[in-house]
C-alpha cells in the first residue's frame, strides 16, 4: 500500500492519541470525516493498523520492576525453540520475547513484576523449569528516559 501524506498523518496521530473520534481525527489532519474514515478503514484492511490498545500505568497497578532477561537454550532445534515460545507465551509477566542473534543468549525477554520477591517466584517457578533453559542473565531497569510504542512514520 502506498501511503500519502494524509495516511502518514493519520498513523502518526492515532499512535499518540488513539482514543480520538473520527471527527477529531479528521479535524487534526484537515480532511472531512468521510474520507478520513475511508482512509482509516483502508489502513486497517491493509494490515498497517493491526489493532488498538489502551496503555496502562504499570506503577499505579503495583508493577514496579522491569527486567530484561537473556535466556540461553541447551539445544538449538526448532522443537526446543517452539516449546520454549509456547511456554513463555503463557506468562503474563512477559511483555516481549525475541529470538536474537549476535549474543551468547538465544532469547531476550522483557518482564514486568511487582517487586524482587515476585521476580524470584517468576524465575524459579516459571522460567527455569522450562525444558531446555540452560542459562539466565537478568538486567533490571533503573530508569526509562524513552518509553514509547509509536513507530517512526517516514515522510
UniProtKB/TrEMBL annotation:
InterPro entries: ArsR-like_HTH, AsnC-type_HTH_dom, Dimeric_a/b-barrel, Tscrpt_reg_AsnC-like, Tscrpt_reg_AsnC/Lrp_C, Tscrpt_reg_HTH_AsnC-type_CS, WH-like_DNA-bd_sf, WH_DNA-bd_sf. Transmembrane segments: none annotated. Residues 3-64 form the HTH asnC-type domain. Keywords: DNA-binding, Transcription, Transcription regulation. This is Lrp/AsnC family transcriptional regulator.
